[in-house]
Write a structure and sequence with these properties.
single chain, D-tyrosyl-trna(Tyr) Deacylase, Chain: A, six-stranded mixed β-sheet
């Protein structure tokens, strides 16, 4: 799975000019599902989302998670995250999971997410033409991808409540492919994380 995670003060998703999902302070997550993704990778990503420390503490450092601030999550399916432009100018989406399978896994992801947290969770509509509006706070944007080839070892055994480990456990981001960008230059996710705004 690939996710573009944006720290927001407000975000909405609309279909046919009708708002179907809305949050105030929290995370807007554009979610792409790849061919090899499974419920295990869903578990891994859910834990990262709930424990990702990109909200400021009392000293202004990124040290709080969406769970810590009792924020909201708005999930918007986004197969175009798997677009590849190695050749030509028209992206190939061959790495994305076929729509029927992706929809099933997306619905399962949302069920798991809601079971793992009491935070407000909103969503877009799978495969619909959507308009996303947001106020990116910072701006802060993180690109996260689940580890390839390790999904089978990422399963969380037991009850759905086990999907919510301590912040100290699940916020270790070194095992993920995380990029923070300033002026187009990738840097390691340590210390303060300068980022660049990504339009929805």
């Amino acid at each position: 799975m690939k996710a573009v995670i944006q720290r927001v003060t407000h975000a909405t998703v609309s279909v046919n000019s009708q708002i179907i999902g809305e949050i105030d302070r929290g995370l807007l997550v554009l979610l792409g599902i790849g061919k090899t993704d499974t419920p295990d990778t869903s578990n891994w990503l859910i834990n990262k989302l709930l424990a990702l420390r990109i909200f400021p503490d009392d000293t202004g450092k990124m040290n709080r998670s969406v769970t810590d601030i009792a924020g909201g999550l708005l999930i918007v399916s986004q197969f175009t995250l798997y677009g590849v432009l190695k050749k030509g100018t028209r992206p190939s989406f061959s790495g994305a999971m076929p729509p029927a399978d992706a929809e099933s896994l997306y619905c399962d992801f949302m069920t798991r997410l809601r079971a793992a947290t009491n935070l407000p969770v909103a969503e877009g509509r799978f495969a619909a033409m959507m308009n996303v509006e947001l106020i990116n706070d910072g701006p802060v944007t993180i690109i996260l991808e689940t580890p390839v080839g390790r999904a089978s070892s990422l399963s969380l055994v037991g009850r759905a409540s086990s999907l919510s480990p301590s912040v100290g456990q699940a916020s270790r981001l070194s095992s993920a492919k995380i990029k923070t960008i300033k002026g187009g230059t990738p840097v390691q996710p340590t210390g303060k994380m300068p980022v660049q705004h990504v339009d929805a």
